[in-house]
Design brief:
With 209 residues, this protein is an alpha+beta fold. The chain has a domain of 106 residues: Lipocalin, CATH 2.40.128. 14% of the residues lie in helices and 36% in strands. The strands form 2 sheets. The protein has an 8-stranded antiparallel β-barrel with strand order 1-2-3-4-5-6-7-8. Strands 9-10 form a two-stranded antiparallel sheet. It is rod-shaped, with a radius of gyration of 52 Å. The chain starts with a helix and ends with a strand. The N terminus is likely disordered.
């Protein structure tokens, strides 16, 4: 009986192990992950075919200046469903010091091993899958761009439009005399001069009408 049970259970165990191994090997490292401290979340994306990760969530509101910091990069796919050959920094220590890194997806967990040259001396961190609805600290940077409405200011001077053109005065009719000519007094017409010669002297005086 025991031998029969072993023969029946063994294929099932092997199939389950193969299924679990395949699921872990096919797990994707892409997405949002809480780091080992739980105080930050890193988004892992593909950069030119390799993996890179940036800090997109910070638990403490007074540490928002680190938002968008690149934590690791240039991690390449290797055998066994792992990623290796890239670099990683410790954001809580020296940001200028880079370490080698190996990333191994394990379902909802991510094994992140940092080392320097050799994996004999290494530090292993376990990251946990974060929800996609996690409020990101870089949400404003990722907002869709579009035309911004013109700012409204109460102290702006009102728009002044040019006044309408004035209507020209009607021109005087040709049949009407000009005002100067109409109002000017009539000049007296000069009379005729009469001349009388007397004794070689010529006298001129107005002729009586």
């Amino acid at each position: 009986m025991i031998a029969i049970l072993k023969r029946a259970i063994a294929p099932a165990v092997l199939a389950l192990a193969a299924t679990c191994g395949s699921a872990l090997a096919n797990a994707s490292p892409l997405g949002l992950w809480y780091d080992e401290t739980g105080r930050g979340a890193i988004e892992i994306t593909q950069c030119n075919g390799n993996l890179c990760g940036r800090l997109v969530w910070i638990k403490q509101a007074d540490h928002k200046e680190g938002c968008g910091l690149q934590i690791f990069g240039d991690v390449k796919p290797v055998a066994g469903g792992k990623w290796d050959g890239g670099w990683i920094i410790d954001p809580e220590k020296d940001l200028k010091t880079r370490y080698d890194v190996e990333i191994t997806p394990q379902g909802d967990k991510l094994k992140v091993m940092g080392y320097s040259g050799t994996k004999f001396l290494s530090q292993t961190m376990i990251w946990t899958r974060a929800p996609a609805s996690l409020p990101r600290c870089d949400a404003s940077a990722n907002a869709p761009s579009g035309p911004k409405p013109a700012p409204t200011r109460s102290d702006e001077p009102p728009t002044v439009y040019p006044p309408p053109p004035s209507t020209p005065a009607p021109s005087a009719s040709r049949d009407q005399p000009k005002a100067a000519e109409r109002d000017a007094p009539t000049a007296a017409k000069p009379g005729k001069d009469c001349k009388i010669e007397f004794g070689g002297v010529t006298l001129s005086f107005p002729c009586p009408e």
